[in-house]
Amino acid sequence: MKSKFHIFFKHDKIVLIKGDNMKRVITYGTFDLLHYGHVRLLKRAKELGDYLIVGLSTDEFNEFKKHKEAYNTYPERKYILEAIRYVDKVIPEKDWDQKIDDVKKYNIDTFVMGDDWKGKFDFLKPYCDVVYLPRTPGISTTKIKEDLK
C-alpha cells in the first residue's frame, strides 16, 4: 500500500510534506487594518494544528452580506495575510453558507473563531472540532477606526 503525502506550497516553495495525520485548521474573517489581536488569533489557531487556512471575506461579501466596508481591498488584505508565517493558505469567503463545503473540501479538523462568535458555528460540530478563542482585550479594528476619526 502506498503512503499518501501532501505537498504544500507557500510563495512557490515547499513548506510542508506530511502524511494523512496532518491536522488542518480553518478560520474566517475580514482581517482589515491587521493588528496584534489578529496575529495572536492566527498564531493560536496555527498552534491547534499543522496547516492553517484563512477564509478571507471578499469585498462583495463584506458590502452586501456583512454590511460593512473594509479600509483595505481584498487583494491587499490577502497579500498581508500571506506574509504572516502562521498562515499557509488564504481562500475567499464569499458567503455565510460556504463553511461546511470548505470544511469538507480541505479536510478540516478544527474550525476556529474568536469567542465573540461563540455558539454561532456549532452547526459545524458534526464535521470538525469547533473552537472559540478569547479575543485580545483592548484591541479591535472597530476601535482603531473610531480612534482614527
TrEMBL record:
GO cellular component: cytoplasm
Keyword terms, alphabetized: Nucleotidyltransferase, Transferase
Cytidyltransferase-like domain mapped to chain residues: 26-146
InterPro entries: Archaeal_FAD_synthase, Cyt_trans-like, G3P_cytidylTrfase, Rossmann-like_a/b/a_fold
Coiled-coil intervals, chain numbering: none
PANTHER family: FAD SYNTHASE (PTHR43793)
Protein name from the UniProt record: Glycerol-3-phosphate cytidylyltransferase
